[in-house]
Design brief:
Length: about 240
């Protein structure tokens, strides 16, 4: 890498920056060096692509799982999917999320046509890379899900909080074009089950976080211009 700035960072230090673990020297250099920041974004983009491509290569597609839940598969296909779900915690978790989402849709109060046009319900696709840290997680990680609305993909990872009955959310958003910088500054609202609302913004690498969120089922709303991308049924500490 050609870098005219003194103290150029190494690839390992760039990965540490992506993971949120870089020392202040590296953070300061990247923020002042457009070349190194561009390289760090490219590392993050490649990691996301690898992580998505390596996830669940032998699992049923989200469409097939949806057909299974709606009981519209042929008997032999339904038997095969049922056998897989019993052995796969990821697919079990995805089915649970789908059922929660369908229940929320049934119970949701009606909204006006203008508001409906502005709200895009994000579809669950596959369990995803490790949210804000953009690292590969093990097969046992079922607290991470990936959602898509239009050309925007959002990975959400939930974990325990510092206090009992609380949890945290780490998010990573990107466009299918690979652009995360264009999402920087985008507002994200987390609405907990009891109505508690928190707001943050997506940073230059596509990350966002919420700490100390009440356990239960939360809703995320991502403001994208004239539309709001809605992620329902995010389970925290459940």
């Amino acid at each position: 890498m050609n870098d005219s700035h003194p103290g150029a960072v190494s690839p390992e230090e760039m990965l540490a920056y992506i993971d949120g673990e870089a020392p202040p020297r590296v953070v300061e250099h990247l923020r002042s060096c457009p070349d190194c920041m561009a390289a760090a974004r490219e590392y993050a983009r490649v990691q996301r692509r690898l992580q998505v491509s390596l996830q669940r290569f032998d699992c049923p597609s989200p469409q097939r799982l949806g057909d299974y839940e709606l009981d519209i598969l042929a008997p032999e296909e339904r038997t095969a999917v049922a056998g897989h779900v019993v052995e796969c915690p990821r697919c079990t978790d995805e089915l649970r999320t789908l059922r929660d989402f369908l229940a929320l849709e049934i119970a949701a109060p009606p909204i006006g046509p203008l508001e409906r046009a502005r709200r895009l319900i994000a579809a669950l696709v596959v369990p995803a890379p490790g949210a804000a840290h953009a690292r590969l997680r093990g097969a046992a990680d079922t607290a991470t899900q990936t959602y898509r609305a239009g050309d925007v993909t959002i990975s959400v990872h939930t974990g325990p909080g510092a206090r009992r009955g609380r949890g945290g959310i780490e998010g990573l958003a990107w466009r299918e074009s690979g652009d995360t910088e264009g999402l920087a500054g985008t507002g994200v609202t987390c609405i907990a089950e009891g109505g508690e609302a928190r707001r943050t913004e997506i940073n230059e690498l596509g990350n966002f976080t919420f700490d100390d969120v009440a356990s239960g089922t939360a809703r995320l709303e991502v403001s994208l211009g004239d539309h709001i991308v809605v992620i329902e049924g995010v389970r925290i500490g459940c």
